[in-house]
Write a structure and sequence with these properties.
The complex is a heterodimer of chains A (about 550) and B (about 220). Chain A is mainly α. Chain A has one domain (about 20-535): Cytochrome C Oxidase, Chain A (Up-down Bundle), CATH 1.20.210. In chain A, about 65% of the residues lie in helices and about 0% in strands. Chain B has helices at about 25-55, 55-65, 70-95, 100-130, 135-140, 145-180, 190-210, and strands at about 5-10, 15. In chain B, strands 1-2 form a two-stranded antiparallel sheet. In chain B, β1 (about 5-10) and β2 form a beta hairpin. Classes of the chains: A mainly alpha (about 550), B mainly alpha (about 220).
Chain lengths: ~550, ~220
């Protein structure tokens, strides 16, 4: 059967033009690649913005940037990384590709809606980037758009807000599609507790997308109406309340960080059993903890506002709930470490990224508890400590997991293999560079260096210079990954259906998969990660009848 | 792909494979999930309303008295009847009475349009009196009144957009009936539009007492 690169189904029938065949495709695998095609250039743009800021911060005082330009740069970095890259992130890119494959389905429940999500995403991207060249320049509010400043500033906040609204809609529709797919299109015999853990991660994520995103959508819409019509709900001069804005914003934006990390946790749980050649430890507890992180994570938003004005009772409750959400996260980490115990560990590139992400995320998670404690948060609020915590969880955690996932499914997506040595070098550069970049920021923040300033006092110079060196290493690492993938595409060897000896369903079909994935649908009466003497237990014949 | 594709277990027993092309339960479930999103979006606005009602109880009551409860009430009755006719239209379709179904659908769309007309009349009276967000007259009033009318225009406006979308959906269903996309044995699109319309009317059922009936 020809692969999905050769033939496709489109929403308007058949096209001769290959470009039209791509942008109107309803095939989940092509849509996943469409997402990646837009997401990764944006990612590198935002990395560029970050490197520019790091260069400016290499010495105290103004070097080559105006203060206002710096404000726009960190807003651009934040908005692009959060709304354009990591929120659609793993779910829209890898999730779209892998979810139906792991479920034993031929596509998502609503393939045309899936295409609409991508188009909305593209419209959102264009809207966001349009403000770079129109009006008074890009927004300078930070990615949080706090009122009343976002109502007052001259910068072009409107298009950024509208973009975030449209991207929210796109994200909701993806979530809806995933939920229905997971409920309806599991292969016969596959109960919820026989699903691969990546699917569990996507399932929890999808519910957050559906239930939290509309809240921020309407909130940003109110800010838009505030600026255009002067409705006054968040405007203190009209009796409105900016604190309410913060509440509504974080009701979405805190769950949003779990929306970013949960698919990542799913990838970790996929990669670990494959490269330890044993069943994952505590399958059910990992599955259930994904769901409970999504549930409890919905109720902790107040910890972003400990210094904004809240009653002591509310602060204690939010602090307590924040500690509570660490429990299912801790359960996961222990399960993963227990999986490694007595496994035959294969240190292939995907495994390295995943192990690195566990180390980074543990640091990021524990410093999150430091910030969740009321007393210390008053001291650390709005310092580089918070920025370092966030980047340890999202860059060191989510992006590492994302890269791990990309390395893991690369042979499935492309049908080719990349160079292992180069892959390991890239990981080494990133891991060392990342920790050099962000660990000093914990100390600088603890000593009182505030975030979002384009300048700092001379005693902090050393920390910023170490971070600057780390940033260069990170950039080199990312370029090595890119080069490695490019070389793999050009002259990598054939991957074959199952290069990693993995067990889940996507590894039982050809790489790259054919148009509707499965010629015959298997009957799934087995757990997702069954190994015996280091070999997968379950095997199928050509008709997807189980032979072992 | 055959109509009843099967997957076989190790004993050779067949198990039906779900088909994503035409999945009645999936499409219905999808709309329910969408309505949850809608509920969260309106929910955030309700939250804002009740917080401000708590803070400015007196001013909200006084401002509410400025709204015409009879016009609002008429609209409530119209929407209630329209959900009834919408449901009935789907029932008729399922029983194969396509003509009656189409007439009821037309009736529902006309009622929705009348609702919008009355709403537009109410808005225009308010705007004529200088009561709209950002107007000098409104901004000179007290905080509670500004917030009440701010929320009034935002929430009824958002609801009105949903009514417009509803009319568009009904027109679409009428086209689908003509083209055979909706027929007595295949009513899922129509059922989902009915469900959506129920939701739109439920939002209004809450909006009406909130804005029109808290006046002294």
């Amino acid at each position: 059967m020809p692969s999905f690169y050769r033939e496709t189904q489109t929403v308007f029938g058949t096209h001769r033009n290959p470009v039209l065949q791509w942008i109107f495709t309803t095939d989940h695998k092509r849509i996943a690649l469409l997402y990646m095609g837009v997401m990764f250039p944006l990612f590198f743009l935002a990395v560029g913005a970050a490197l520019t800021m790091r260069a400016e911060l290499f010495f105290p005082g103004a070097q080559f940037l105006q203060a206002q330009t710096y404000n726009q740069l960190f807003t651009f970095h934040g908005v692009t990384m959060i709304f354009l890259f990591i929120v659609p992130g793993i779910a829209a890119a890898l999730g779209n590709f892998v979810l139906p494959l792991q479920l034993g389905a031929r596509d998502l429940s609503f393939p045309r809606l899936n295409l609409l999500s991508w188009w909305l995403y593209v419209i959102g991207v264009i809207t966001a980037l349009s403000s770079l060249v129109t009006g008074h320049g890009f927004a300078d509010t930070g990615w949080t758009f706090y009122a009343p400043y976002s109502i007052r500033t001259d910068a072009h906040v409107l298009s950024t807000l509208s973009a975030a609204f449209i991207l929210g809609l796109s994200s909701i529709l993806t979530g809806l599609n995933f939920i229905v797919t997971i409920h309806r299109l599991r292969a016969p015999g596959m109960t919820f507790f026989k699903m691969p853990l990546f699917v569990w991660g996507l399932y929890a994520t999808a519910w957050i997308q559906v239930l939290a995103t509309p809240v921020v959508g309407i909130t940003l819409l109110l800010v838009i109406l505030e600026r255009t019509l002067g409705v006054g709900i968040f405007d203190p001069t009209k009796g409105g309340d900016p604190i309410l804005y913060e509440h509504l914003f974080w009701i979405y934006s805190h769950p949003a960080v779990y929306l970013m990390i949960l698919p990542g946790f799913g990838i970790v749980s996929e990669v670990l059993p494959v490269f330890t050649r044993r069943t994952i430890f505590g399958y059910r507890s990992i599955a259930v903890s994904s769901a409970s992180i999504a549930g409890i994570g919905y109720l902790v938003w107040g910890h972003h506002m400990f210094t904004s004005g809240m009653s002591d009772t509310a602060r204690i409750v939010f602090s307590f709930l924040t500690f509570l959400v660490a429990i299912p996260t801790g359960v996961k980490i222990f399960d993963w470490v227990a999986t490694l115990y007595k496994g035959s560990i294969v240190l292939a590139t995907p495994m390295l990224w995943i192990l690195g992400s566990i180390v980074n995320f543990t640091i990021g998670g524990l410093t999150g508890l430091t910030l969740g404690a009321l007393g210390t948060d008053i001291h650390l609020h709005d310092t580089y400590f918070v920025v370092a915590h966030f980047h340890y969880t999202i860059l060191g955690g989510v992006i590492f997991m994302f890269l791990g996932g990309l390395h893991y499914w690369y042979p499935k997506i492309t049908g080719k293999r990349y160079d292992e040595i180069r892959g390991r070098i890239a990981f080494g550069l990133m891991f060392v560079g990342f920790n050099t970049l962000w660990f000093p920021m914990f100390i600088a923040g603890f000593l009182g260096n505030p975030r979002r300033y384009f300048d700092y006092l001379p005693p902090f110079t050393l920390y910023h210079q170490i971070a600057g060196v780390g940033a260069v290493l990170v950039a080199l690492g990312l370029l090595t990954v890119l080069y490695n993938f490019y070389r793999g595409l050009r002259d990598g060897g054939e991957a074959g259906p199952n290069p990693w000896n993995a067990t889940t369903l996507e590894w039982h079909i050809p790489s790259p998969p054919p148009l509707e994935n499965f010629s015959k649908i298997p009957y799934v009466d087995f757990d997702p990660y069954e190994y015996e003497n280091g070999e997968p237990v379950v095997q199928f014949d050509a008709d997807f009848r189980r032979v072992r | 792909m055959s109509e009843h594709e099967m997957a076989y277990d190790r004993q050779g027993h067949p198990h039906p494979v779900p088909d994503f092309h035409d999945d009645y339960g999936g499409e219905k479930f999808g709309l329910w999930v969408f309505l949850m999103t809608e509920a969260m979006m309106f929910g955030a606005l309700f939250l804002l309303f009740f917080i401000n009602l708590y803070r400015h109880t007196g001013a909200f009551g006084a401002a509410s008295a400025d709204l015409n409860v009879w016009l609002g009430g008429t609209n409530t009755v119209i929407l209630l009847v329209s959900t009834y006719t919408m449901g009935l239209a789907t029932l008729m379709m399922r029983r194969g009475r396509t003509g009656a179904s189409k007439r009821l659908l037309w009736g529902t769309a006309v009622m929705a349009a009348v609702f919008l007309g009355i709403k537009a009349f109410e808005w225009s009276v308010d705007i004529h009196h200088g009561i709209y967000p950002g107007s000098g007259i409104l901004d000179a009033r007290d905080d509670g009144t500004i917030l009440f009318f701010g929320l009034y225009f935002v929430m009824t406006g958002l609801h009105g957009l949903h009514v417009i979308a509803g009319i568009a959906l009904m027109a679409w269903v009428l086209l689908l009936i003509r083209s055979g996309g909706v027929r007595p044995d295949h009513t899922i699109v129509m059922k989902n539009v009915t469900l959506y319309w129920d939701f739109v009317h439920l939002v209004w059922i809450v909006l009406f007492p909130m804005f029109y009936m808290i006046g002294a």
